[in-house]
Every structure is written in C-alpha cells, then in structure tokens.
Design brief:
Layout lengths: L6 H12 L8 H11 L18 E4 L11 E6 L4 E8 L18 H19 L1 H8 L13 E8 L3 H4 L3 H14 L1 E4 L1 H10 L6 E6 L2 E6 L7 H4 L5 E2 L2 H9 L4 H5 L12 H8 L1
Parallel strand pairs: 1-6, 3-4, 4-5, 7-8
Antiparallel strand pairs: 1-2, 2-3, 6-7
C-alpha cells in the first residue's frame, strides 16, 4: 500500500542528519535504527518486475566474520535475481577535500569506497557462500538456478557538497562507472521518499543460518508461502500477530505451505469452495 507523504517524518529525519555527531551512541547507528523503524525512507531503486523480494530488507547481513553490510535487499524477474548490498556512512563525512586547485576526494570517502570494494572482491571470490547465507529466503527453490547479479550502494554525505561544482559531479559520475558502486547522499534518500512510491517494508535479520523478524511493519507478506519453519524463526508474539491477521500459522508450523494469498493452505481453499 502506498503511503502518504509525512512531513513530520521528513523533518525528524533531517533533524537527525543535521545534528552534530553525539557522544556515546554512534550517529551511524542512530540513522540505521531510524531507517529500520521507518523503512519507507529506505530506497530500493533497482527493483525488477517482481518488486522487493518478500517485501523485506535484511539488516546487518554478514558476508563473513569480518565483513558486514548495513542492509541487503533482493529482487527478481522470471529469469534473473539482483542482490543489493548497502553501506551507510554518516552524513557528516566529506566527499571532497578543500583543495581549491583541483577536485580531490576526501580520505574518509576513499575509505568508504574501499570498504565496499572489499565486499565486491569477497562476493566475487565467495559467491556460493554468500548465496548459501541467503538460502532461507532464496525462494522459489527452482529459481535458485537463475543468474544472480550483485549490486552495491554507498550512502554518504550531503548533496550540497557534491552539487557545488560541475567538476565534483563529474568525478562522482566517473567513480560510479569505474567502481560499479551506486554512490548516494542522504539527500538522495530524501528525494526518493518525496518523489517515489512510499511503502512499508519488514526488517529481518540472519541468526545461525535462519532468518527472523527484527521489525514487523506490515502483515502483508508472501514469506509463509515459500519459507519453512526450518529456515525462519517466529516468536510467540509474532505467531499470535500473524494468527490475528488470518494466517494459518499452525498449519505452517506443521510444514504446510500457505500457498493461497500467502495466508492459507490449499486444504483451506478447498473447504471454502465446498
């Protein structure tokens, strides 16, 4: 369901972006939590015709023990998958140095680019392991054989800095092309929120080779049509929540797919027809 534009939500997000880095809790974590609690602010710009896979974003998805993304999302068509890995840096980080004679990217921006490039190298060398970690939601099973494309996004800084000169904009455009990384500022996120379709997404996470909900923002999901209880953990409270929304959770726990409207078993559908 498309959401109405929320001026207060936009203002609250801008206030966080404009605030000085806090003492104690890191600003990056504050932004990350705000986005997960308000996922309509999370852009998913490269969706295929099957849209956002299961309507979920995976929080803090680990590539291995030393490489962790801020979030990951999947999309597919009938013959292709796209997996997008996203890195969030704080908006206070500069994209460029103050060199007046030439356009030079800053050391903190270069470090962020290097981090995402390390993901690219790891995924290229360990594609099978990365896909294995995604298996709990990598459904339908038969579509796992389809080609998979990996995309990368870096969110850092503010647009005012990059838009201050055509040279800076050209440097970023060239970097995007050379690295294969979609470089976005936090103002890009705001523009997506203002001008693109706004909708809730559920936030999930990986735990011991199983997925689980971190934040449930919408009860509309096709997860239970494909994902089994062996791959997905539900708490007692979550079971009751989906049960109250009409999902045949007891049947799902027995190993039966909720293949009808994502809520019911085929047996339920047969009974209704009688």
């Amino acid at each position: 369901m498309t959401l109405d534009f929320d001026e207060k939500l936009e203002k609250d997000f801008i206030d966080i972006l404009d605030s000085p880095p806090p003492t104690g809790k890191k600003k990056e974590l504050i932004i990350h939590e705000f986005l997960e609690k308000n996922p309509e602010l999370i852009p998913t710009p490269n969706l295929l015709n099957h849209h956002l896979h299961f309507g979920v974003v995976i929080s803090k998805f680990p590539l291995d023990t030393s490489l962790e993304t801020d979030y990951v999302y999947l999309t597919k068509s009938s013959d292709t998958w796209i997996v997008t890995f996203v890195e969030l840096e704080i908006p206070d980080k500069k994209l460029f140095t103050n060199n007046k004679k030439q356009v030079d990217t800053s050391s903190e921006f270069n470090k962020a680019i290097a981090q995402v490039r390390s993901w690219q190298v790891f995924v290229e060398d360990n594609k099978a392991e990365v896909l294995r970690r995604l298996e709990p939601i990598f459904h339908p099973f038969l579509m796992r054989r389809n080609p998979v494309e990996f995309n990368y996004q870096l969110v850092i800084g503010r647009s005012e800095e990059k838009n201050s000169s055509p040279e800076r904009m050209r440097v970023l455009a060239r970097l995007r092309k050379e690295t294969g990384i979609d470089i976005m500022t936090y103002d890009t996120l705001l523009n997506y929120y203002r001008h693109s379709e706004r909708y809730k997404k559920n936030i999930i996470s990986l735990s011991k080779n199983k997925m689980q909900f971190k934040y449930i923002h919408t009860e509309s999901t096709m997860l239970f049509s494909y994902v089994s209880k062996d791959d997905f953990i539900l708490t007692l409270e979550e079971k009751e929540y989906f049960r109250s929304k009409g999902y045949e959770i007891e049947e799902w726990e027995k190993g039966n797919s909720l293949a009808v409207n994502g809520k019911y078993t085929m047996a339920h559908f047969s009974k209704k027809r009688k």
